[in-house]
Write a structure and sequence with these properties.
There is one protein chain. The protein is an alpha+beta fold and about 130 residues long. It is built from 2 helices and 7 strands. The chain folds into 2 domains: about 40 residues, no CATH class; about 80 residues, Copper binding periplasmic protein CusF (OB fold (Dihydrolipoamide Acetyltransferase, E2P), Beta Barrel), CATH 2.40.50. A 5-stranded mixed beta barrel has the order 1-2-3-7-6. The longest helix is centred in the first third of the chain and has 27 residues. The chain is elongated. It starts with a helix and ends with a strand.
Length: about 130
């Protein structure tokens, strides 16, 4: 009888310990719907940075040459776009009228269905 109880207790104790240790992990996990919303929320903001290749005031777009210069991305700005001159950590208020082709620009916003960045804020400066 003692052997049977010891054998059962020997099997039961590790199962209980593992069960109790996994409870905090299960409680700390967010439901899948919340996780998807958090992932989507984090993915909403995007950044495009590079050298300005072309500007069109008629369509309110800026063509930005990114990376090694082989890819061009479109940035769409609006009257609510905030313009800053300088670096991302050291800047001052700027204006669209001061932005020129060949400036380095970094814009933050959201992508639309056409994969264009709808800019909330752009920081520009001379060269990189």
């Amino acid at each position: 009888m003692r052997v049977r109880l010891t054998g059962i207790a020997g099997l039961l104790i590790p199962v209980l310990v593992v069960g109790f240790l996994s409870i905090p992990n299960l409680a700390g996990q967010a439901p899948k719907a919340d996780k998807a919303a958090a992932d989507k929320k984090g993915a909403e903001k995007a950044n495009i940075q590079g050298t300005i290749q072309n500007m069109s005031k008629e369509t309110s777009t800026i063509s930005v040459r990114v990376g090694s210069g082989t890819v061009t991305r479109q940035v769409v700005y609006s009257p609510s776009t905030k313009w800053l001159v300088g670096h991302s950590n050291d800047n001052k208020p700027g204006a669209l009228a001061q932005v020129k082709v060949t400036n380095f620009i970094s814009c933050v916003g959201k992508f639309d269905a056409k994969s264009q960045l709808l800019a909330d804020q752009c920081v520009y400066r001379e060269g990189k």
